[in-house]
User: Fold Aldehyde dehydrogenase family protein from Pseudomonas psychrophila.
Amino acid sequence: MTDSKRFDNYIAGEWVAAPTYSSNINPSDLSDVIGEYAQADANQVQTAIDAARAAFPAWSTSGIQARCDALDKVGSEILARKEELGNLLAREEGKTLPEAIGEVSRAGNIFKFFAGECLRLSGDYLPSVRPGVHVEVTREALGVVGLITPWNFPIAIPAWKIAPALAYGNCVVFKPADLVPGCAWALAEIISRAGFPAGVFNLVMGSGRVVGEAIVKNPKVDGVSFTGSVGVGRQIAINCVTRQAKVQLEMGGKNPQVILDDADLKQAVELAVQSAFYSTGQRCTASSRLIVTAGIHDKFVEAMAERMRSIKVGHALQAGIDIGPVVSRAQLDQDLGYIDIAQNEGARLVAGGRLVTCDTEGYFLAPALFADSTASMRISREEVFGPVANIIKVADYEAALEMANDTEFGLSAGIATTSLKYANHFKRHSQAGMVMVNLPTAGVDYHVPFGGRKGSSYGSREQGRYAQEFYTVVKTSYIGS
Assistant:
């Protein structure tokens, strides 16, 4: 299935060749080269930023119907091609085909949602405290925005950044993760035919060290929205704040899934498996800490081990597979390293944690589950970002809540219980941006806000109407009679 085709950057309305190209390799089959993708240099990034800056005045004041139509066209084409694009996503990132198609559908719906937002822009018209004066409060586009996205959701996360940016009248310079450029290029190709003026949207693929840094430090970029690692995110924040650019960060997670004594055991096991291991555990909302109260603990450990024996690991495009490969050799090495660390610290490996042999050469790992772990272990405190989870035994609900909040992160948290009292208390007292009751911690809707607290997020929320907080600025106008 090797395809040696070259895929260029999209700058100022044109497809532009790059100085160098990089191979996009299928993690399910290392012999499958999806294509050669452009690696922009700093000069190309500057050209893209200049094009966006030049296009901004006209685009930011353009008619809302034209914006709506263009975004809706993008969404419609994504949905019409969801099987094709899902196949591409599964090949380059390693999600199972059903999950990949689901992600593509989500991306299409995001564009359609923000097409509607173009027609729902609102403000306030207020009387002043001064007689004969009125006040208008309106929102205007931020300007040129740099969008830097991760490899784990190669079309959904770009969609939830690009769509609102364009809907609210901004111009975009988009840098996808260097590891998964295929879906980003396909999305850019759809956008290139949707009716946006030249320069409004630009794609610059390449390394974070070159492309990302050129975007973040450029004084013509008014805001940067980044999803990725904590270390990189904090450095981006420093650079943006230094030059007073707006910044939005989504970073790490160490999400707790609490299982109380009164939980439905079968339901608790299923949501824990989905939270911890589906999408190969490569989700910032994945639950890697399973906090279980004493009365149900032993039964839960036994049931989890039994359930994990039925999980099928294999080629992402193979029917009947539950979990595909880890995305890359480096990520696989990191996962295996944490499995070793957990065992060396005294945690007990209950299931999985071994390499899996398949018909093709790929990065296949059986999900690992640990028991007898403590809150002080590295496996309980550091984000693995892979199919690795550990069970922590606690005495009761109060101890479970304290343990759930005992982390530097605060993205998503879940509780499994049949008690309305504990469910309501957990929703109020969990120090997370998103709380799930009897649901997996990973799995969110596209029309409501996404984001966390503490070390997980910085700045305003993404998705839904809350996206306008980042992509617009507020203007207050006073009108005298």
Remarks:
- The radius of gyration is 23 Å.
